[in-house]
Amino acid sequence: MDYTIDFIVKIRDELKKELKPSRYEHTLGVAYTAACMAFMYGEDPLKAELAGILHDCAKCFSNADLIRMCEEAGISLSREEIESPAVIHAVYGRYLAATRFGIMDEDILNAIGNHTTGRPCMSVLEKIIYIADYIEPLRNQAPNLREMRRLAFRDLDECVYQILMSTIDYLTGRGAPIVPATMNAFAWYKREREHL
Ligand code: DGI
Ligand code: FE
Ligand code: FE
C-alpha cells in the first residue's frame, strides 16, 4: 500500500485532538525523525512517518483503562505486562492502529506494538521507530542521547543494542520489573554484536 499525505494528515489531526500537547509534539518528533532515518536506511519515508505518528496512539489512556480495554478486545496480557503497565500502550496501540485507523501493514503494526520493548530480530522499520522514540528532538533525559543521535545514522543494530542496555540499566536502577520482550531483545542484539 502507498501511504498518502492526506491519510497521514487525517490521522495526525485526530491524534492532535486526543493526545496531550506535549505527547502530540513528541509524536511529530518521532514521525520526522523516523522519516529521516528512512532516507538513510532505504525505507519508505511516508510509511516511517505514519508509523511514527501512530506509535503512541494509545498513550492517552490510563493503565487501568488499557488493561480493561485489552481484556474487552480479547488481547491477553502476560503477568509481566500487567506488572509493567508502561508497556501496554504499545500492545493496545497496535490493536487501535489496525481496528480504528485501518492499518493492515504488518510491519507498521509490529513497529507500533514493539516500540516500547523492542524484540529479537526487528525489521528495519521496527528498529527505526524504536530508536526514533528515544532520540527525537524533544527527548532530554537520557544521559547518552547525544551519542545515540549520532549512532542512529551510523549503525542501526548497535544503536538498538545501546538503547536496550540503557533502558535496562534505567529500569534496574529504579527497581522496576523488566518484561521478557525487553530482555530477549537485549540478549539477541548482544549475541548479534558478538558474532560480527
Ligand atoms: O511512550 P513513550 O514515553 O514515548 O516511550 P516508551 O513507549 O518507550 O515507554 C517508555 C516507558 O516504558 C519508560 O518509562 C520505560 C518503560 N519500559 C520499557 N521497557 C520496560 C519498561 N518498563 C518496565 N517496567 N519494564 C520494561 O521492560
Ligand atoms: Fe510509547
Ligand atoms: Fe513515544
Helical proportion, percent range: 55-70%
Query: Which structural category do the helix and sheet elements fall into?
Result: mainly alpha
Q: From the alpha-carbon coordinates, what is the Rg to the nearest angstrom? A: 16 Å
Domain count, please report it.
Answer: 1
Ligand species = 2'-deoxyguanosine-5'-diphosphate, fe (iii) ion
CATH topology: Hypothetical protein af1432
Number of alpha- plus pi-helical segments: 11
Instruction: Report the portion of residues in β strands.
Output: under 5%
- Return the average pLDDT rounded to an integer: 97
Q: Judging from the principal axes of the Cα atoms, what is the shape?
A: globular
- CATH architecture classification name: Orthogonal Bundle
Please report the total strand number as a whole number: 0
So, the CATH homologous superfamily? Hypothetical protein af1432
Poorly predicted spans: none
Spatial separation of the terminal alpha carbons: 35 Å
Please provide the ordered H/E string of secondary-structure elements. HHHHHHHHHHH
Largest sheet: none
